[in-house]
Amino acid sequence: MQQNRSAHDNSGGGAEPDVLPTPTRKGPTVVRRAAGERRRTGGRWRVLGTALALSAVLGAPQVRAAPTALAKADPDCTRAGCHDAYAQAPVLHAPLAQGACDDCHQVTDKDRHRFALTAAPPDLCLRCHDDAADWIATATAKKSMVVTACTLCHDPHSAARPSLLRADPAALCGQCHAEVPQWLGPDRVAHGPLTKDCTTCHGPHGTPLPANLKTAMPELCLGCHASIKEQVGTAKVEHKAWTMDHYCANCHDPHAAKVEHLLRRESASLCLHCHDQEVKSGDTTITNIGALLARTTQHHGPIRDGNCMACHSEVHGGSSERRLKEQFANDFYVSFDASRYALCFLCHEEHVVDDARGAAFTDFRNGDRNLHFMHVNRQSKGRSCRACHDVHASDQPAHLAEKVAFGAGGWQMPLRYQQTATGGTCQPGCHRPQSYDRVTPIPTPVPSPGATADGIAPAAP
Predict the structure, then answer these.
(1) Cis bond leading into 121, ω under 30°?
(2) What is the distance between the alpha carbons of residues 82 and 104, in angstroms, rounded to a whole number?
(3) FRET partner for 322 with CA separation of 20 to 30 A, picked from 216, 241, 342, 440?
(4) Are 358 and 365 in contact (CB under 8 A)?
C-alpha cells in the first residue's frame, strides 16, 4: 500500500488507525440526513453534507484526487495511510465516517489507484439531497453555481465548521461577492447579520424571492426589529417611505453604510430624495421642500444642521400629523397653552412667550416690550408660530414667511415684512402697517373702538 503513495493524488495525510472509531458525543460530528432519508442498497448512507451554497457563480467544483486505497478492496480509505487527515476534522461527512467512499467514488484505474465520481454533479449530490432539487427549481438568482458547485462552499469529506462549510459564512460569501469585504471595511457601519451570517436574510441555495431573500420585505426586517414592527403596527399616520418600492431599503442599506443606522445618505439628503416634489399626505399636499430650500437663503436651524429628525422623529410612522416629535400648533389662531408649542420649546426658551418684557432674550420687541408674548400669549386669537414663520425656509430673516395660509379657503395672505437696522414693519393682508423699534419704541397706534390696549383687535363675536 505504501509503495503506491507517490503515484496518486496530493490530498493525503499521515498514517491512520486500522479501524475508524465510531463517532460519539465527544468525537467528530457526523453530517447525516434527517429521519426518513434514503440509504443505498447495503445500508450505507449517501450524504454529501447539508448544502449551504452561495447565490453566485464561480465555475464547476474541483474534483478531489482519488484515495490511495481501492474503495472496493478497502472501503475505509482513511486507514490506508494517505487520507487520515479527513477523519481528524470535527465534522465528518457520513460516507467518510462509515467507510463508504464508494458511495461517491468509483475505481477507474486499479493499478494506478485512480478514481472518478460515481455521478456528475449535481446528480451525485441530488441522489441524497433531493430537497436541493426544489432549491434549484425555485431559485430566482443565478443557478449555475447551485447546480454545479456544491463543493465551492462545502467540503465533501470533512470540515471544522457545521454543514461542512469551508469557511465562516461572511468569509465564504466574500469569495464570490467581492463587495462583502468592502462592506466590512473600517469606514462602514455594518448590519449585524453581515458580520455573522449572511444566511440570516438570504437563502444560500436559492429562494423564489429577489436576491434569494428568505422572507419578503418588510416582514424580513420586522422579524428582527420588533420595536419598529410595533411602531408601524400602531401608527395612525403612515410614512410612505417604508411602504413603497423597496420598503425599508428605500432609506436603509441592508448590508452596510457610511451613515449611522445604515442610512443610504445623510439625513437631509435622504429626505430630499423623495421630498424634492410635492407629496400627497391624506387630504393635504406637502410642498416641494427641495425646491423651497434651493430658492431661499434663510433656513430653519434643523435644516441648516441637516437634521430633519430634530422635528420629524417618527420616521416609521406615528400618531401626530406629519410625524412630528412633539405637539405643534398648526392653525393660524390658537388659544395659548404652552403644551401646544412643545415642539418649538425643544430648542427655543419658553420665556419667549411667557414674559411680557424681553430686552434680555429677543429682538422682536418694541423697546423692551416682548412682541412674541403680545402675539402668542392670548386666549382669544393667539397667533401660532406658523402665523409668521415658515417652518422650513424663506428669504426673510428668522425665516419669516412671505405668505401664510389664512382662513378656511387657504388664502395665501402676504405679510409684507420689511426689516430695519433696529426693528421692522409688517402689513399682513389688508391691515395697515405696524412697526416696532428696539432702540426708539414706536407708540402703539390708537386702538379702534373695541380693540385691546396692545392694538390687536379681539376675536369677532
Answers:
(1) no
(2) 18
(3) 216
(4) yes
Cα 76 to Cα 17: distance, rounded to the nearest angstrom = 11
- The reported pLDDT for the residue numbered 176 is 86
Sign of the dihedral through C-alpha 246, 248, 249, 251: positive
Beta strand 29-31 with 91-93 is: parallel
List helix spans (H) across 296-364: 301-304, 351-354
SS3 (DSSP) at 409:
coil
Q: Average pLDDT per run of 10 along the chain, which is 461 residues long? A: 37 36 47 44 33 33 37 58 86 88 90 89 82 73 62 91 91 87 90 91 88 93 95 90 91 95 94 92 86 96 94 90 90 94 94 92 95 94 95 95 91 96 94 94 65 43 37
Query: Peptide bond before 204: cis, by omega within 30 degrees of 0?
Result: no
Residue 414, strand partner residues: 403
Peptide bond preceding 23: is omega within 30 degrees of 0, i.e. cis?
Answer: no
Cβ atoms 50, 37 nearer than 8 A: no
Distance in angstroms (rounded) separating the CA atoms of residues 58 and 148: 10
What's the one-letter identity of residue 25?
Answer: R
Furthest-apart CA pair in the chain: how many Å? 122
pLDDT of residue 28: 59
CA distance 301 to 307: 9
| Cβ–Cβ < 8 Å for 370, 355 | yes
Q: Is 168 helix (H, G, I), strand (E, B) or coil?
A: coil
Closest CA to 153 of 142, 167, 135: 167
pLDDT for the residue numbered 441: 95
